[in-house]
Amino acid sequence: MNHRKPSNIALKCGVGAAVVGLIAFALSWSIWDFWGGPMPGIEILLFPGNVTLAYVWHPLFTEEVTFWPKLLLLILGQFLVVTFVVAIFTSIAKKGAKCWQP
């Protein structure tokens, strides 16, 4: 069974993080007037995407990027960061589990 490979787990987590980020962004954008600003907790949910916007995409592009490309870069960053972090941790955990087997 290959459903426990670190790459499969990482890809599923990355897609899940991108979907959660997209839903959180859409909710925050929709109810901006209700909260008088961004939805509480949005910084935590979109942290991986915001990190890539600030430290990866911003040096490459200027701030004058329109809304849709910036949203795409946010979701792409969300997917990539979560996928890479989960892949690293699952591969380390898999190697550690092999070490402890009798």
Keywords:
102 residues, mainly alpha, elongated
Textual characterization of the structure:
With 102 residues, the protein is mainly alpha-helical. Helix content is 79%, strand content 0%. The protein is built from five helices and no strands. It has helices spanning 6-30, 32-35, 42-45, 47-60, 67-100. The model has no long low-confidence stretch (mean pLDDT 86).
Please render the helix and strand layout as text.
Blueprint (H helix, E strand, L loop, with lengths): L5 H25 L1 H4 L6 H4 L1 H14 L6 H34 L2
Helix pairs in contact: 1-5, 4-5
The biggest beta sheet reads: none
The rounded Rg comes to 17 Å
The helix fraction, in percent, is over 70%
Uncertain residue segments:
none
What class would the helix/strand composition place it in?
mainly alpha
Overall geometry: elongated
Continuous helix count:
5
User: What would the average pLDDT be, to the nearest integer?
Assistant: 86
Q: Strand-residue fraction?
A: under 5%
Determine the N-to-C terminus distance.
21 Å
Q: How many extended strands?
A: 0
Strand/helix succession:
HHHHH
